[in-house]
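<backbone_tokenisation>
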Amino acid sequence: MVLMERLILVNTYEDILPAYMKTPIGLLLEYHNLSRKPDEYEKAQLLVGMCMDNRKHLHIPDNFAFIIRSGGANLRYSEFKVSYAISVGKVSHIALIGHNHCGMVNLIERKNEFISGLVETAGWKKEKAEEHFNTFAPMFEIGNEIDFILSETKRLRLRYPKITIAPLMYLVEDNKLYFINED
């Protein structure tokens, strides 16, 4: 299926999926895509899990969201932070945001670049850099961005059954958030 066939653009308030209207996830889309005027917040309304990629920036008010950035929006190794946002921060909504052209897709193609970068930039020995890549790349490889976000959404819904979790995509070409069609 082509990328755009799997995404739902939010250009108007009515484009927000009914399950997310009048929720912090709907507000996230209003702020980011629809240029809603920022409200003031004393505490976070949701948790955003998104990639560490520098090309993405959310247009949201101060104090609106906890944000965890990790390669590929992979929260597998950030679950304590997720649990903290839920238990102590009292958030009941999570926006899991992947993006196109993610560097965590097909990591094996970047193996030589990764190793030489650690050698040249960080001063590592080639053998240690290679061992580092071979140990951790399989843990952080996400495959297809959309499929990974959907699988991570399902995993988190099983782990936190009372939490509303929305799978979203950020397209770097237009800086917009899209719902991922779960059908």
Q: What stands out?
A: The chain has a mean pLDDT of 94. The chain has five helices and six strands.
